[in-house]
Amino acid sequence: MERSSNNSSSQFNTLNATSFTGVLLWGFIHARSKTHIILIFLTPLFLLGLLSNLILTLSICSQKALRTPKNILICQLSVVDLGGLVATNSYLFAMFARDTFRPITLPTCLIQYYALNAHSNLLICTVTAMAIDRYCFICQPFHYERKITNRLMIKILSISWVFAAVYPMIYVLTFVGQKSCQLAHSCSFFCTPSSLEDILCSKDLSVYPKVYRLAIMALHLIGSFSLVGFSYNKILKVSKTMNHCNCSRESLTTAATHGLVLAIFYVTLVFFIVTGSLEVKDPFKENLLSILRAISDLVYFNVPSIFNPIIYGLRNKDIRAGVIKLLRLQHILGV
């Protein structure tokens, strides 16, 4: 590990001496000797996530009986997961195949940051909407049947797409017209906000983006946690008042399914955010952080995307029946 750290520091100093500017992705440099192991681990995860999300999405979209408000949210989650899987893993496969890890430029870094944040925002909005949907379904069933329609759910999801597109754009626009004069490094496979702010010619210009980024991130996560926490607190209280009848067990089952998805998402998200926000100067700690960050990158973009469709496919009777029906139809048609 010490030798790897010294080699990385030597490469960074060499690039710095040759007047390179941009962001050096140390995740690829540290993983260079373990590329084959990562690909052996990553390829089946990618294929499993791709296949399971495609089947779930096609099952819901192709069968009218499955197009309910709850399933529209599940379909949205699968679509977003599919986009994240294809985009991030295609990028990783391409970078590992190139095996040349030169610093990425400021515009490339901004595009990458925007895409990653838009994806994360969509996921947060979707899982939060799913928690509120379960709250309305369990705690206010009569209101839910009358007012929560497919059209309303599509409007809510449309707003989430607009929000996900606009929020990171405000941060990115602060860099318009700026130039990079420094060589910074990111302990990741991706460009991190701190490394993006470090490459600017003027450090004063990076103060507002950093404050805005941290403030919005805190508000976004606190708001999401608060809504999810409120929803599940109410769900548990209502379930306890149902005197252990069948409806109580059904309510707890559906809440447990969504709760499991939420737990996997938030644990991997917090791990991803924390490892991406840490800044260390000690070479040994930096090497360790790069390893942790590389693991968090792979876990965040793959593990939830694999487990989400499997959890819903196994625990949701309607979706499970729809998936079986779709697979049987494909078999009959010989596809």
Shape: globular
Alpha plus pi helix count: 12
Helix amount: over 70%
β-strand amount = under 5%
Average the pLDDT over all residues and give the rounded result: 80
Biggest sheet statistics: 2 strands, parallel
- Work out the number of β strands: 2
The neighbouring-strand order within the major sheet is 1-2
Structural class: mainly alpha
Element string (H = helix, E = strand): HEHHHHHHEHHHHH
Low-pLDDT sequence parts: 1-5
Straight-line N-to-C gap: 50 Å
Rg over alpha carbons: 22 Å
What does this structure look like?
The protein is built from 12 helices and 2 strands. By secondary structure, the chain is an all-alpha fold. The N and C termini lie far apart (50 Å). 35% of the residues are buried. The protein is globular. It has helices at 2-17, 26-30, 35-62, 69-98, 106-139, 141-147, 150-173, 193-198, 207-240, 246-277, 283-315, 317-333, and strands at 22-25, 183-186.
Question: Which descriptors apply to this entry?
Answer:
single chain; 335 residues; mainly alpha; two-stranded parallel sheet; 79% helix; disordered N terminus
In terms of topology, how is this protein built?
Elements: H1 2-17, E1 22-25, H2 26-30, H3 35-62, H4 69-98, H5 106-139, H6 141-147, H7 150-173, E2 183-186, H8 193-198, H9 207-240, H10 246-277, H11 283-315, H12 317-333
Parallel strand pairs: 1-2
